[in-house]
Specification:
Blueprint (H helix, E strand, L loop, with lengths): L4 E2 L14 E2 L9 E3 L8 E6 L2 E5 L23 E5 L2 E7 L5 E4 L5 E3 L13 E3 L2 E5 L4 E5 L5 E5 L6 E6 L2 E6 L2 E4 L2 E4 L9 E5 L2 E8 L4 E6 L8
Antiparallel strand pairs: 1-2, 3-4, 4-5, 6-7, 7-8, 8-9, 10-11, 11-12, 12-13, 14-15, 15-16, 16-17, 18-19, 19-20
Length: 225
């Protein structure tokens, strides 16, 4: 997604028809891509200020998705999270409201509390949703909408991500993988990413000044090379 255009390219870089789709108003968040059942029936979510549009792989609006507009600007890309056999779509607003919706866009969990959203994506930890706020609090939301808050004694350069059974945090140069500490040289780091390859899980992180890439396994060991 660029400022006013949504593209899909194939692996050779050619545009896939009927894309691109052009918009009159600017796109205000990165493109969100959902694959509810891991069967490649993709849903593409475009955000424009307070409005949300969902498209299928043929470029048609998904008629079953009824949620259209928030009361304030959306501050993070919409997310899809599955807990058990239930799907949740999470949309965070500038006024602090967290919308937790079903696949069709209807409210699934009512969260009365307001949050100071940071740029850290909302994550799933167990059966709870986790918001890391801009004032360094970890807000955990259960399936009833109840919120428990934990103050984090961390720096302004803090990142938090979970995928499957792997939990990673970065606090300045202190990288923790499932609680195991891997101390990095001082520098300016990007957010850690978790990815899978050949049935293994790896954690990657980039230092932007020295232009170095680090890749760790889940035991906190740095890979050779």
């Amino acid at each position: 997604a660029t400022q006013k255009t949504f593209y899909i390219l194939d692996r050779t870089g050619k545009q896939v028809a009927p894309f691109p789709i052009k918009f009159k108003d600017p796109i205000t968040q990165p493109l969100a891509v959902f694959d509810y059942d891991n069967n490649r029936k993709y849903r593409f979510v475009i955000t424009q200020g307070q409005e949300v549009y969902m498209y299928d792989s043929k470029g048609k609006a998904v008629k079953g998705f009824t949620f259209k507009k928030t009361k304030s600007n959306i501050v993070l890309p919409p997310e899809h999270i599955r807990v058990g056999n239930k799907d949740y779509i999470l949309i965070a607003e500038d006024n602090g409201k967290l919308n937790i919706l079903s696949r069709v866009g209807k409210s699934r969990i009512d969260v009365p509390e307001k949050f100071k959203f940071s740029s850290i994506p909302i994550e799933k930890e167990g059966s709870k949703f986790v918001v890391i706020t801009s004032d360094n609090k970890k807000e955990s939301i259960d399936q009833t909408g109840k919120v428990s808050s934990l103050a984090l004694n961390v720096s302004a350069n803090y990142f938090f991500t979970i995928k499957g059974n792997t939990k990673v945090t970065l606090d300045d140069n202190l990288l923790r993988i499932n609680g195991k500490l891997a101390e990095l040289p001082y520098g300016i780091y990007t957010a850690p990413q978790i990815f899978f390859a050949n049935r293994n899980t790896y954690i990657s992180i980039t230092e932007t000044q020295e232009k170095k890439i680090y890749i760790y396994d889940t035991g906190g060991a740095l890979l050779p090379g």
